[in-house]
């Protein structure tokens, strides 16, 4: 019935089916089965978590890991203690039926009911097709808050047996959170590496390849649960670590088997969980207390909203892409509870928790409210608020190239700025992976294959399979057998269509040049720091040269003579200095040039900013007599600079002799020097002044 399934989520319909089945079983006088915690945690939950971890969108997950951890750890702790404290106050004020419930029991109840459930989130969010950011934030929180839930649950359960809780017990409980979470991740990583290493040697027996993936993942979950570590985090870590190496080693058929078997297995588990929830609701023992149940529901919603608003205000101070009010509403509204809370409540012991039935009733009420009310209304609210939906687009080679280019670019920018951020550590990890890990865990030539080429092969294979499934290759006559098809010699292409094939060595060389140069250019650069900048030794010299040039210009504006351009082709200032420095004898002296303004060139240091100096302040034309035509045609004379004595001005020093050793060259006074000036095209003294 499409009209019903478009309004009501699948999880709600399955719970309704469970309620009907449970009522039917009870109606005929039989006792309905109850969802036992062992069955749930050992057989129904692992397939769903493995499917989520193995196909986790790793890029979005790692880019938002900080936000997810804050929501998962701080948010869950806030929910548990806020809810537990308020429920303790309600129990103290709620009358004789609730007075006997202590603080530890309420905190235990708060830790059970506070965690967002990954099964319920997956069931609802997959149907509304929310955008990747919101999906990974809510789903990532539901996966990673398992460690907090496990620690708080076992902590308060143990504290309930103690006569007195000391400060040392609280400190040990705080440290156990790190042991449980990091221990679970470590167990998952170890089994993921073992699975990847095993898949390296399965090329001759492809049938058992999928089995190793399931076997090692389940072993990781059981090993973590055995030591009271986080089994969910172990499964996620195992799936994330093994996937890139396993997929490089196994065949395409094994990959397809793993993909569809995991999807089917998780779908079956999800269906059974929600049906059993409905059946257990009918079959279980319930104790209804209006005050306790309504307070639990109300405070759950208040704690979630307050937690999301406060944490998002803090997170947005550090995020580049801010979480908008619409995003905050969806995150708060998407905090669904599910079967994990029910199973943890079912695990409680009657001896220490006599109020277990009331706890279970309140938990089932919260689960039904979040799954039915919030799950059914979140789709119209997403449409009403115009929240961005997920866009189904196929990845292309172009997108992959630009993604890798931007990763390299951002890593280089971080290195130049001296900031060791997300991209820097990601790049370090990628280098370590390529240099050491891939060689150990991937067999054959695939270990040396660049990421772009591997992605291209994957896309090519996928496109070929889609082409075959759609029948796009063309119809082959049924009379021709597959053996005869293989024996047909393919037609050789015409010579003009044959593309020049690169050898393997040449390909590797090209790849190596491109990849290493793109990545290793930045290694030669030092981190920028304003405190360690080296002073420019020429900076003071440039300033002195500019001041002297201004003085020279002011002097020349008083002159009435005209500057003439030499008849031969002018060289650039740099070439002229180089030519004089290399062969000063090539320029013969002119006669009667002792009264002309002289520019000296120091051949020893043609690149020095002080290589151009005015020797004669006053030309002959400044004495009141008009300049003769010969002098006008002669222009300026250049001489080799003599070493200046200490204490004299090396800029405005008149020439002392006119010996043949003083070499001269016609030159314009508008020498721009080592750096081009803004007025480079203007002469010192425009003609006509």
Automatic annotation (TrEMBL):
Which Gene3D superfamilies is this protein grouped with? 6.10.140.1330, 6.10.250.1040, 6.10.250.2020
Coiled coil (residue ranges): 504-531
Got a GO cellular component term for this one?
A: basolateral plasma membrane
Single GO biological process annotation from the record:
sodium ion import across plasma membrane
Q: Which residues form the Sodium/hydrogen exchanger regulatory region domain?
A: 480-564
* Compositionally biased residues, Polar residues: 654-664
Reactions performed catalytically: Li(+)(in) + Na(+)(out) = Li(+)(out) + Na(+)(in); Na(+)(in) + H(+)(out) = Na(+)(out) + H(+)(in); Li(+)(out) + H(+)(in) = Li(+)(in) + H(+)(out)
List each copy of the Cation/H+ exchanger transmembrane domain by range.
Answer: 8-382
Annotated InterPro entries: Cation/H_exchanger_CPA1, Cation/H_exchanger_TM, NaH_exchanger, NHE-1-like, NHE_CaM-bd
One MF term in GO for this entry? Answer: calmodulin binding
Q: Which UniProt keywords apply?
A: Antiport, Calmodulin-binding, Cell membrane, Coiled coil, Glycoprotein, Ion transport, Lipoprotein, Membrane, Palmitate, Phosphoprotein, Sodium, Sodium transport, Transmembrane, Transmembrane helix, Transport, Ubl conjugation
Residue ranges annotated as transmembrane are 6-25, 37-56, 68-91, 103-124, 168-198, 218-241, 262-284, 290-316, 328-347, 359-382
Locations listed in the record: Basolateral cell membrane
- Membrane topology value: Multi-pass membrane protein
Q: Which residue stretches belong to region Disordered?
A: 585-689
Q: Which PANTHER family match?
A: SODIUM/HYDROGEN EXCHANGER, SODIUM_HYDROGEN EXCHANGER 1
Identify its protein family: Belongs to the monovalent cation:proton antiporter 1 (CPA1) transporter (TC 2.A.36) family.
Q: What is this protein called?
A: Sodium/hydrogen exchanger
Q: Which gene encodes it?
A: Slc9a1
